[in-house]
Design brief:
Strand content: 5-15%
CATH class of the largest domain: Alpha Beta
CATH architecture of the largest domain: 3-Layer(aba) Sandwich
CATH superfamily of the largest domain: Toll/interleukin-1 receptor homology (TIR) domain
Strand order of the largest sheet: 6-5-7-8-9
Number of domains: 2
Helix content: 40-55%
Structural class: alpha/beta
CATH topology of the largest domain: Rossmann fold
Largest sheet: 5 strands, parallel
Number of strands: 9
Number of helices: 16
Distance between the termini: 83 Å
Order of helices and strands: EHEHHEHEHHHHEHHEHEHEHHHEH
Amino acid sequence: MLYFFLSYARGPDDLFVRRFYNDLCSEVRVHAGVGHDVEVGFLDNHNIEPGQLWPQALVNAIAECSTFLALYSPAYFLSRPCGKEWKLFEQRSNSAAADEANRIPGLIPIVWLPPRELPPVAQAVHYDLDVPEDDYRRRGLRQLLRLQRMHDAYIDFLSTVTEHIVAAARTPPPPLGSLDLDFDRLESAFHGPVPGPDDTGELIPARFGTGQMIHFVVAAPTRAEAEAINRDDGYYGADPLEWAPFGPAQPQPLREYAQKVASEYGFESMFTGVDRLADRVKVAQQFNHIVVLLVDPWSADVAAHRERLLEYDHHRDHVSAMLVVMSAADPQTQAHRARLADLMHATLGNNERRLDEVMLRRSVLTWPSFEADLAVVLAEARNRLVADGRVYRRPPPGDYAPRPILEGP
């Protein structure tokens, strides 16, 4: 039996979260009287075996855990995957008796870093751990872990949480009736419906401007364009945004991996094809957004795409980062790797020279390396935006009195 599922937003604090998870597992085993080798908790990047589909592993864990620990932070409520985990546990708990003290039985909120505001679904959940430490209430569990002088307070907090987990395990919410669920299509409890294409074919966010915005521009052929250049068309669809370079083992479009990483780090994201690249760069400059170019090197073999990329490469305005994907599991790409690299240099040479080694990834080989590289790129892009970006603030709507003018005596 899993005593708890730890739901959190990935980010720079991952090492501290892992430490909390390990400490909590040890404490739960002691209080529950089980062996040291018994799995009592679930942490997504800890329990998922290589090659296992992480959404199904999450569904299975949420289906059987006794408690759901939500690590509240600003990034947590911006994360669509975290919202999906919450939604799934909420659905499981709907058939259980609810009361005013706790609308979702088994859900234990823990303040990791106090968020500025809570979404409605979180406002309805009231759960007081009765922790006396002012540092936890003002700054969250993160502060207790980071400061050595707060070690005793952290140990007390750990024991308190453990007591709640073990007590709640005596009356867990009912298990899920069916595990045949599509986690990718599940709605987030914190967001609106899953984004869909607008009338221009651009994938738009459910809530524009909620967090920092990333414009992902995908340079890839369609299936028909791939056939025209004698390229294996199994990696493509009717639209460039359907490009899935890590298939067939990982058949999801690349944009789904990119969106998952972006949401986990608190970003909203938009996706468009290379025909809108110049437009996205202009918008990003105006509103301090981030532009990431995701490139299939085979796109430069398609005349229309190569022309757009060359035209853009000679402009003064540039993207924030560029990732070129050359899947190691794609034999045709690996056979043409040297030619494709030369083609990229000839087509996007100015961008290659301008971008440093952090913001330019010339050959991404696997989907785990894509997610890891993109996480580093987004973290660095955010830091540079804070350091160098200009902030444009629109005045609030309404009528204004005439501007005062000083006149001479």
